[in-house]
Recover the amino acids of this structure.
């Protein structure tokens, strides 16, 4: 994949076939399916080793519940009942922490979509038809709230979001292009970009105007 967050890659374990852009991470993160799926659970409690994995879980929990803007060393440390110096030890720059969380959330979304898409290349209409029921459920809404917040902060010129947002967008397009049925790589990427644009537009409508209007728009597009 061409999209990178930090120009270096590390292994990603137990997450299935690592063929999507979100497997390319900052050098501080190793993801597992368990890490992602437990992120919205309570992260406090007996038995947690306050290592990189538990800190990532706590960070994801903060973002999914309170939003990207709430993410800070102090907030994560409070969630786990540890010193913020422990968080800094694993994520020396706040940009690394933010990137790791957004990457992990994106990874979960892509795992969900892989199950819906199957293994055969699909047309743009079929990709959207399969994606919309997966992404428009209540479970996915906090994840997309985080992505839209990143885009908003990037649009306002805030760092590190102004650098992170293009990487995320291009990563999604590259990942989706591999699932598009078309003759050339250029055409596959163009179609993938159109799918991302339409799905993101529907999700934005859902977030602002509600599920009823978004679902009506999806029916007009012939995907619901």
């Amino acid at each position: 994949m061409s999209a990178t967050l930090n120009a270096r890659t590390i292994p990603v374990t137990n997450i299935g076939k690592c063929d999507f852009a979100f497997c390319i991470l900052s050098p501080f993160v190793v993801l597992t399916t368990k890490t992602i799926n437990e992120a919205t659970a309570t992260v406090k409690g007996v038995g947690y080793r306050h290592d990189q994995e538990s800190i990532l879980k706590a960070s994801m929990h903060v973002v999914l519940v309170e939003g990207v803007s709430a993410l800070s060393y102090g907030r994560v440390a409070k969630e786990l009942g540890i010193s913020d110096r422990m968080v800094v030890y694993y994520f020396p720059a706040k940009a690394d922490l933010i990137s790791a969380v957004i990457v992990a959330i994106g990874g979960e979304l892509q795992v969900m979509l892989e199950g819906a898409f199957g293994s055969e290349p699909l047309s743009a209409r079929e990709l959207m038809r399969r994606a919309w029921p997966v992404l428009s459920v209540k479970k996915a809404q906090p994840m997309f709230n985080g992505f839209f917040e990143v885009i908003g902060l990037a649009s306002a010129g805030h760092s590190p979001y102004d650098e992170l947002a293009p990487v995320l967008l291009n990563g999604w397009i590259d990942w989706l292009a591999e699932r598009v049925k078309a003759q050339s790589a250029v055409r596959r990427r163009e179609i993938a970009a159109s799918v991302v644009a339409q799905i993101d537009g529907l999700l934005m409508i859902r977030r602002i105007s509600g599920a009823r209007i978004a679902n009506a728009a999806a029916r007009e597009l012939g995907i619901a």
In short: DSSP finds ten helices and no strands in the chain. Confidence is low (pLDDT under 50) at residues 1-48. The radius of gyration is 18 Å.
